[in-house]
Amino acid sequence: MVTLRHREPPITFGPPEDSSQALPVYRCDKTPELPLPIKVLLNQNYPGWEFPEVSEDDCYSVRECGGPDAYAQLIRGDFNDDGLSDYAVLIQLNAEANDKGIARPIRVDVVAFFRRANGYKMYPVTSEGGGAVIVMRKGTTDYDYEKERDFTYPRDAIFTGIGMGGTSYLYEYGKFRAIITSD
After folding, report:
1. Is 53 domain-assigned?
2. Among 14, 101, 138, 150, which residue carries the largest CB count within 10 Å?
3. Is residue 3 a part of any domain in this protein?
4. 72 occurs within a structural domain
């Protein structure tokens, strides 16, 4: 015979929470923390840099592709295929406000940082960054719109896009090569 125990309701303090109003907080809704050596390199090479604001659409894309722990302005991957964890960041330079008071960046850059024994080495990727960065994992299949064919990433790559268009940046022969992967 099973005896059910009567449990007292938990004690609560304050007004009841309205869970219908609670939205989950994702990392792409927050500003990422960078390792100190990367902050130093950015401050030296991009004075006045900051992370750009992330639109709801870009945050949604980041959550869909990178999961709840993904940031819109920071990704980690092995972009040079050396077995070490590298970073890529999306930064803006010199924001200005329009007539409605909404700040728009003059320039958005993607910058990669390859892990080295004594810190990181900085590699500018593009000054045509989109609304977010997403890591494209080694072995993932994608479509190259210029060559009109499918391909497989031989190493982790950096994706960034604006609206429906986007570009993946693959590190090859000492530099990043742009591949149009979203139309």
Report:
1. yes
2. 138
3. no
4. yes
